[in-house]
Here is the input.
Amino acid sequence: MIENLKRRGFWIVARTCFTLYRWFPLFGTLRASIGIIRRGQTFLVIQRNDGRGLSLPGGIAGRKETEEQTLRREVLEETGLSVTAQELRLRYGSTIDVPCTISVFEAEASGELKDSWEGSPRWMTAPELEPRLLESQRPVLELLRKISAGLPGVPGETLSETLIETHGKVHDRSSAER
Here is the structure.
């Protein structure tokens, strides 16, 4: 009963906050960090309680929080795991949910998985999670495919080097320049 109330509470809070911030972006572009945590060929995702689908663990940064601090806090809150190592792999902008710059880390974590009011952690392969991943996190899919295939990615890759954003959609610069 308490768990159902928490889940419903998260649904209300999340939906209300996203809607209000889209209408009134008082703090401008927000910052967020998300983590790619892998176990074999599977990745850790959160089945969100707000009904929006799956997301990689992570969230919005606090005012004075670094990208790494945000990643550690959010992964712990959402999964119960402690981040033990992280490497910045990608940074991109999105206006899909709210105006936000998203830092993507490949991370290692330890501990025991647990549910949170935000959702339930699950291990899924890239093809399994792809159709249900939040639209704002879809730019990460190519990186997930590279990691699954054991292909090298470019550590510290940034939006300005490889991707451009147009009306909330992210495109490969090489195809946009043709």
About this structure: The chain has one domain: 2-176. Residues 153-178 have pLDDT under 50 and may be disordered. Helices lie at 2-23, 67-79, 126-129, 141-149, 159-162, 173-176.
